[in-house]
Structure formats: structure tokens, C-alpha cells
Design brief:
It is a single chain. This protein is of the alpha/beta class. The protein has 2 domains: about 5-100 and about 145-235, Rossmann fold (3-Layer(aba) Sandwich); about 240-300, Alpha-Beta Plaits (2-Layer Sandwich). Helices cover about 35% and strands about 25% of the residues. It has helices spanning about 55-60, 85-90, 105-115, 120-135, 150-160, 180-195, 205-210, 230-235, 250-260, 280-290, 305-315, 320-325; strands at about 15-25, 30-40, 45, 70-75, 75-80, 90-95, 165-170, 200-205, 215-220, 225-230, 240-245, 265, 270-275, 300. Helix 3 runs parallel beside helix 5 and helix 5 (about 150-160) packs parallel to helix 6. The longest helix has 16 residues, at about 180-195. The protein is elongated.
Amino acid sequence: MPMSSRSDVQPSSVAVSAVGLRKSYGDKTVLDGVDLRIPAGSVFALLGPNGAGKTTVVKILSTLISGGGGQAQVGGHDVVAEPHAVRGVIGVTGQFSAVDGLITGEENMLLMADLHHLSKAEGRRVTAELLERFDLVEAAKKPAASYSGGMKRRLDIAMTLVGGPRIIFLDEPTTGLDPRARHTMWGIIRELVTDGVTVFLTTQYLEEADELADHIAVLHDGRIAAEGTADQLKRLIPGGHVRLRFTDPAAYRSATTTLSEATGDEESLTVRIPSDGSQRELRSILDWLDSAGIEADELTVHTPDLDDVFFALTSTTDDHSRSSQPNQPKADVR
């Protein structure tokens, strides 16, 4: 079946969707009703602790295994009824490289071109372009076994792109990479999205999700504990506040005496006000300052980071994530 071009996907379309996705192994439930909706041309990050079911989600959506219930569509194709069509529009890169270390980087690429039934000339053209794009030209003639971890991962993704996939599943793609190689990989992922590719990313690196993802979901005990943008998720966790700094002691005292919820630090002339960081609350604080005739020299917003969100939502208390679901934030679909 001929592969679809990326231009077939409109920016507002949905690249991946799932409703009630389930999977069990014996009496162990791995996925217990997972719903997803991922817009085309975006980065979606699925977070979760080891054993949460992240890789199982990727395997079901990429047709590598069958689900135990629910429905899923990838690139507009049903993963059960049209698995070959799904495979024609996706690329999959796991946390363990599929690179053959016994042959050169260029030979790995050409082998992938053959698997995609490209002509010899087209295969060599695509290989040359991708080797240059991923800065692998100098190493192209060397055995892949001699590559560093970062180089192998770049080669792995380059091989995935040979068929021109519209949707790429990256299952913990930066596991084991040093910080420099990880940042290089982030740049590659951003470039893919610029080209119109949809990226489905699983990761345990919370900074990675914060840096890259348009939309994040936290998977725990087989369910989506919460989802939304990074900022929306951070506002789920208590501890956010607005910090006002003053240089005028009189203004500082006015702030602490007229706002009951404020906590002051007289030494630094700062006032801390509980806040979720939303635009509505910031406007309320600014309106209060104006009405009271108080002028702060500096206003900063402090919110919990994704580490706080992750640990709170994936705690050992099973009821914690379930109770978070009714109030989970909804991200805007772009």
C-alpha cells in the first residue's frame, strides 16, 4: 500500500485518538480505559513510572500488539481494522536502538530504504539527505557499533524517517544519553514538528516533557491521572504563590496588613500570596494592589514544577490519581 504524504494531514486534524483503551496480561490489568486525543503536528508526552503501561500504549497504537478493549485510530486509520494503513503512516523508535552494529550507518539506512521498497536511486538520495540532516556524514562509512550512544540514537531516528512517516512514536528516546546528547535529540524533535510530523513521546525525564510537549498526560495504575499543558498540570498541585517585593517599608507593611492571606518576610520586604498562577488570579492581585494604592517593585509567579506533579499523581495511594481525574485540566486543541 502506498504511503500517505505528510501534506495529507491538516493542521487542525487529529493524528492519534483512543477511547477506553484496555490491556491485561492474565489477571494483571495494565491499561484500564485510556482516552487520548492528539492533534496533528504537535508533541504529546506520556509520563508515568516504570510499569505504568507507557510502552504498552505505544505498542497498541503502532499495531505491534493487540489491545484488550476500546478503540484507537492513528492517522485516520483504525488500528485493528486497518493495521497496514497505520504502519504506512507511522515510525517507531524504542528506548533500545534497532541499529545493526555490524554494518555501517549508511548500510543501515539503505537497508531501511529497501524495506520501504524505495528504488535504489531514491534510497540513496533519502539516505544522503538524512545522514546530512542528522550530522552523520563523517561516520556514515564506519560500523554502527563504533558510534556513541547519541549517534546511534540519531541514526535510529534517521532510519525511522526513511519512509516519510507523518506520526512518530518515540518510546523513551533519550534513555541513557548524556545531557549534551539529550539536548541534541530535543532539537531534532523540534525540527520534526516544524516539518509537520506528530510526535508521541514517552519519557521519564520530566524536564524533557516540559521542554518539548504541547500536551502532557500522566499515566498511573493503567489510567490517565491528569492531562493538559505543563502549566495546567503544575496548577493542580498546591504550593503555587505570587511573590511581591518592595523597596518601600511602608508599602510592604500596607500589603501585609490589608491582605489576610499574605505571608510577609520583613527582612527581605517580600510578601507571598497563595495563587495557582492563573491569569484570573493575577488580575485579581493587581486590581487589589491598585485599589489599595500599593505599588510593588517586583511581582513573580512561582508554581510547582513537573516533578511535584509527577510525584503527587503517581504516589502509592491509588485513590490519589483517581480523585484528580474529575478536575483534570483540558488543553486547547491546536
